[in-house]
Structure prediction request, 358 residues.
Amino acid sequence: MASPHLFQSAPLARAVEAIVAAGGSDARESRIVAGNLVTANLTGHDSHGIGMIPRYVESLQEGGLQPNRHPQIKFDGGALVALDGQAGYGQVIGMQATAIAIERAKQHGVSVMALANSHHLCRIGQWAEQAVAEGLVSISFVNVISRSIVAPFGGSDARFGTNPCTIGIPLPGQPPFILDMATSGVAQGKVRVAHNKGEKLPPGLLLDDRGNPTLDARFGVIEPFGALTTFGLHKGYGLAVACELLGGALTGGGTWHTADRSKKRVLNGMLSILIDPKKLGTAAVFGREADEFVAWVKKSPPAPGQDRVRIAGDPERETRARREKQGIAVDATTWNEIHAAGAKLGVAAATLDRLAKG
Prediction:
C-alpha cells in the first residue's frame, strides 16, 4: 500500500479551503470549514477531518448542502431558543448556534438550544470546547439523518446513525473535560479510514449484510452494507435512541425512519443544554471539588500497558500537540478521493498538492 502523505496543518487547510470556495462558499465560510476539518485531524479524529470533503462535494452537487447559510431563529424564549440550520455547513451553523446558546446562558444562567436541519456538524466536541472556553458546562445530544448505519441492540440491520453525545465541563486551572463520543462502538468515519488504509476492525464493532459479526470494514463503506453495533450493548443503544428523540424529534429536525439510502447529504439535529456555574451559585465549590476529584482519579496506579490515567479530552490534546509538530498523515486513498472531489469543482490535483505542501 502507498505511503501516507504528511502535511502541516496550515497549508493543508489552504488546500481544503480552495475546494470549499470552489463549491460556492464565501472566503470566511471557506476558512471556517477548512479550519474545522483540519482541527479534527489534528486532534486525532480523522473520521471527521478532511476525508469528509468528498462527501460534502457530493452533497453540494445533489443540493443537500447549501453554502453561505446561517442559523435562523424559529422560536425565541430567552433561555429557550429553536434554530434552523437551513442545511448550511455545520462548521458555520454549529459555531454560530453555540454562540447564541452561550449568550443566553450567560444572561439567564442556563440555555436550551434546539438546532434542526444543519448539515454535518463535524466534531461535536468543538462546540463543547467553545462553551467551556466561556466557563460553561455543555451537554449535547445529536442525531444523524443520512443512510442508517447502526443496528439496534438485538437487531441485525442498520436503523439509525452514530448519534453522538457530548459533555464539556470547565475545570478551573486545568484543561477541560470533553467527552465526545458516538453511541456506536466506533464512528462511521473511522470505518471509512480503516477501509481506505486496508485495515481490519476490532471484533464486536460491525455486522455484515446478513447480520453476522465481521472484521471487514468494507461492510460499513460500500454495498452491500452491513451495520455498526452500539457501544455497551443495550446501554449504548438506549443512549442512541435518546439522541434520536432529543436531537431529532424534539428539535423539529426529524428522525431517521426510511430505507432510502440514495442521498449524500448528512443532516444533524442537536439539543444543547448550557449551564453557567457562576449563575448557579456553586462555582466555588464546583471548582474545588472538580480539581480534587480529577486529581484523585489520576492518582490511580496505571494498569499494565498504560503510562498514566487520563480524562476525556487528554488524548485529543496530546495528539494535537504531536501532530502540530510532526504533521498530519493522510493515507493515499483518502488524498486521491480529495483530488477527485476537487476535480468535480474545477480544482486541479496539482493545485491541491501545491497548496497542501506550502
